[in-house]
Write a structure and sequence with these properties.
Elements lengths: L10 E3 L6 E3 L4 E5 L5 E3 L10 E3 L3 H10 L1 H6 L8 H26 L2 E3 L6 E3 L2 H23 L16
Antiparallel strand pairs: 1-2, 3-4, 3-5, 6-7
Amino acid sequence: MSPTTQPSAAIRSCVACRRRAPRAELLRTVADQAGRLRVDVMQRAPGRGAYLCAEARCFQAACQRGALARGLRRRLVPVTATDFRRVAGETVRATAEQAVRQGLEDGRVRRGEGVGTVVIVDDRLSRRLQQWAEQVRRLEAEAVEDPKRADGSSETEVRHS
């Protein structure tokens, strides 16, 4: 590989909309032995994973079609799109905070001039934090746009395939 050639990023597909994107742009989901769905922000959890766009409509479509259960090859505990969006946002935010704390320890991040500010020295960490911030922003924007059902019924839950 020549010095000017960038290595290609691993491409994955959203199980709902089938959009292909670098894996860093998608949320990786995994299921534990009990079938509880969780977000694998660091994309290193053992076992089979399924990728989703960081958008509620993709999660709902995947639930309605049973695509998550099929992609993970496992029966899943029912979860609503609102719960998934909340947990995903919290998980991404917590992982970003942990990455900054770790960066402060190993020198990839240093304290800034103002109170509570940091300067990210490592480009790779900076790009990853920006991607996580974008995912959280999209998840939170979906929460504002999410229409409530007139009959008061619950949202779509994960279908068991």
